[in-house]
Amino acid sequence: MGNAERTHEIEGRETSSQVDKSAIVGRENDINEILRMLLNETSDVVNEVPIVISIVGMGGLGKTTLAQLAYNNGDVKRHLDIRMWVCVSNDFDVKQIAKSIIESATGSGCESLALSPLQDRLQGILQAKQFLLVPDDVWSNDSEKWDKLRVPFQAGKPGSRIIVTTRMEYVASTMGSSHIHKLLALSDDECWLLFNCRALEHQSAEEHLELEVIGREIVKKCGGVRLAAKKISSALRLRKTTREWEVVLGSEIWNSEGILPALWLSYQDLPPAMKQCFVYCSVFPKDRMIWKDRLVKLWAAQGFIRSEESGEIEEIGGLYSADLLRRLLLQDAELDDYKNIVICKMHDLVHDLAQFVSGSDCSTVEIRKQASSNLNNIRHSFLIFSDEAGEVASIPVTLFKAHKLRTLLRDSRISRVPQNLFHHLRYLRALDLSGARIQKLSRTIGRLKHLRYLDLSYTDIVELPEEVSNCINLQTLRLNRCEKLKKLPRGMRKMISLRHLEIICTFMLMYLPQGIGRLTGLRTLTEFIVGGGDEGCNCRELKYLNHLQGSLRIKGVGKVRSRDEAREAELDKKQHLHALTLKYGYDERLDDDEDVLEILKPHTNLKEFIIRSYKGSKLPKWIEDPVLSNLVKVKLMRCDKCNQLPGLGKLLSLIYLHIHSLKEVRKVGGEFSGDANNDGSGGVVSFPKLETLFFFKMPNWEEWELPEGDGQIMPSLVELRLKSCPKIKALPRNLPPLLQRLSLGISNDGLSLEAPLPIFLNLNHLEIWGNDELTSLPGGWLGQLKALQTLQINNCNWMESLPEELQNLTMLQQLRLASCRVLEERYQDGGEDRDKIANIPSIKIG
Questions:
Q1: Using an 8 Å Cβ cutoff, are 409 and 382 in contact?
Q2: d(CA 135, CA 121)
Q3: Which phi and psi (to 5°) does residue 805 adopt?
Q4: Residue 387: its pLDDT value, please?
Q5: 10-49 as b/e: b if 16+ CB within 10 A
Q6: Residue 431's closest CA among 462, 457, 408?
Q7: Top-confidence residue, 10 or 823
Q8: Do the beta carbons of residue 284 and residue 430 sit within 8 Å?
Q9: 3-state SS of 287-317?
Q10: What is the pLDDT of residue 809?
Q11: Among 552, 544, 551, 549, residue whose Cα is nearest residue 520
């Protein structure tokens, strides 16, 4: 699942396991030493399970970066069955860490359990597996907690490793480290190399010489701390004159102790508006991943992004976050499919700087059973509930005295919100109760006249009180994953300041209140629900919502009552939407489905289009119109009566195509490829940019033909998947030969490896899905896939053997067998046929 498709937030303190290798200077010997410890199995402690390696050093030296390099090393990956990364930080919560390790190992969420069941589950995951675990940024030296956590690790195979990063050597000793690698400061020369490539890369030779003398003196003041050199060099790359560099060198900030002065320069270099935004980031706990979209909306709620600036508030906030990343005041950014920032975080020392500047304004408050500390002067607060607070947690009444409070964020342990909370905190601008175990919200929320941001996502709320409509300054209302929510306030039409209404996965919400179309300032409306009787909306309410951005899902398209109603929605004027989903209900049966859909043509700026559960027999003509030149992703899903695919080959920018459950399609021919795109030499190019093509659950599909001739067909295709297409017997011979990833459903009656198949000389990943009737994979075709690196076989419970020719695939690095009962028994450790696949470096069974 791509980043752009995420529908919920993953909360928690964490660091990323990814690293930019090009930014590493001066750590070559360190990484080689860590890799030697990881890969050397002749050690006298090789039978210890697991072996603990600690990387110890002061903040800013690059401990996490070093662990990231080791974690992502190719030899290490091939050596292991499982890799896990978890950030520990200040609070060594055994249950939370065990839960995070399970989630890292499985790639999916783990429910909150007692410690013993978590230990049992983790032990089952690691049983007889060789693993690598990285607990990053450990502070606690509580040996009792560590002993509880490490119990399941002993189920792993010899050769399993743990890499601990910590600032304190006594922590490394507490964790029973067999090896302690002390990370030293960079030398002045190493520090200069790092500084030089960042600060002087765009300078002429003459300018370089003038600035180098000053730069080397600045580097000496960095004390060999990698982070300091990075921050200052990033700030100085914008300063071109020797005078500007001399001012930095002579600044009084160097007279202070520690690394803070080096970071202070980066802060001082910020424009005034961005300084507020940067300091506000310290409200989040250390090591917390920050969702950029949420952060920008919180900035806007506090008035840090002013409307008089040119451009949309959200656009300006995005530029702010990008600039903070460029200046390295934020880091570890993850991007979506369109290179937009999704999440990021702050380095601990940068967080210290932001906290220092903030003073008492921004604070993380740990709630315990006993009374919390004085909260009177806090303006922006993030509540964390310690283990001492117990399973049932409530917002403390001591917070009532925080009359200056503007931001109240929380962790997910809240189960009760005091009824009179909103009476006391009347100046709140941002309130986040997402994940709280609450079913009802007090009607006194209507008192919060200054409230601009309200997040109730992941709660059990059934109905919002009508008084929410009195929050007329509210800009953001987030109700994602409120799976019991049935009703929104009727008076929402009064909330004219609302810019973002998020209702992703609110499955019980059957209608939107009438008048939603009056909220012409809406930028985000994740779902528009058609219908709902006298209280609900019709499609006409979309007419004036022409500022909508991002994604829009229209649910209940089959309830659009006429072509006139569809026309008045004016989807072709929604120029800022990049993604549109049209969802039909299972009980919707209208005679003019095809005419209505033809009218619901989107703006030509659209990048993604999804249609689900459509009842017509023909898809709209506009879906194959080359005028949709920006369309990069299309999904056609559960269109049961459609018997022919549209000519999507005409779409010049299409990269991703997913066709799912079109049950009436029997043939895919030339009409699918289209004949519209001339390559300039007289030939035709169909699907010129298509990289990924999926066909799933096509039960009656029998033939697939691609046009013959001088033209090019799918010249950019990298990945092809055909699954649950039981009647298709052959692949087109003229599929592009550059294919790298292929997933096929193989059966005795349908597509078979015995049939002539194209030879993909660049294929490096092959996934085969079988059934209980498939007993073998015939030889011949597999042996010609000389570039194959990964082979995965699924759902072949009665397959008895693998082809001998696998031994000739010299590039094959990994074999995976899943739900292949007989094969798993034959090829387990010590099995009689194990020697047949002994040349494959990594074999995963089960």
A1: yes
A2: 19
A3: -65, -10
A4: 60
A5: eebbbbbbebeeeebbbbeebbebbeebbeeeeeeeeeeb
A6: 408
A7: 823
A8: no
A9: CECEEHHHHHHHHHHCCCCCCCCCCCHHHHH
A10: 85
A11: 544
How far, in Å, CA of 417 to CA of 442, rounded?
Answer: 8
Q: Which amino acid is present at 767?
A: E
Name, in order, each residue with C-beta under 8 angstroms of 762's C-beta and a sequence gap of 6 or more: 737, 738, 739, 740, 787
Burial of residue 829 (number of CB atoms within 10 Å: 0-12, 13-18, 19+): exposed
Q: What is the mean pLDDT of residues 65-82?
A: 88
At 237, the pLDDT band (50, 70, 90 cuts) reads confident
- The three-state secondary structure class of 283 is helix
Q: What is the pLDDT of residue 390?
A: 53
Q: Convert the pLDDT of each residue in 94-124 to its tens digit.
A: 888 999 999 998 888 888 778 888 989 999 9
Tell me which of 204-213, 565-574, 623-632 is least confident: 204-213
Question: CA 836, CA 103: separation in Å to the nearest integer?
Answer: 34
CA–CA distance, 12 with 95 (Å, rounded to integer):
13
Reading the block at residue 179, the tokens are: 């090896």
Query: For residue 2, what pLDDT band results from cuts at 50, 70 and 90?
Result: very low
Element spanning 792, H or E: strand 790-794
Q: What backbone torsions phi and psi does residue 529 show, to the nearest 5 degrees?
A: -105, 120
Residue 203, classified by CB atoms within 10 Å of its CB into exposed (0-12), middle (13-18) or buried (19+), is middle
Please tell me the predicted confidence (pLDDT) of residue 9: 31
C-alpha 383/C-alpha 285 separation (Å) is 9
Give CA–CA dist 839/815, Å, rounded. 11
Fold of 737-846: 3.80.10
Q: What is the pTM of this model?
A: 0.78
Tell me whether the omega of the peptide bond preceding residue 272 falls within 30 degrees of 0, making it cis. Answer: no
Find out whether 242 and 214 touch, Cβ atoms under 8 Å: yes
Which of the four CATH numbers 3.20.20.140, 3.30.70.920, 3.40.50.300, 3.90.76.10 does domain 27-182 have? 3.40.50.300
Per-domain boundaries in the chain: 27-182, 186-350, 737-846
* Range 376-403 average pLDDT: 76
Closest CA to 347 of 257, 298, 281: 281
Question: Do 480 and 500 touch, CB atoms closer than 8 A?
Answer: no
Q: Whose structure tokens read 């007090």?
A: 442
For 317, 363, 579, the CA distances from 303, given in Å and listed in that order, are 11, 19, 29
**Bridge pairing between strands 341-345 and 290-291:** antiparallel
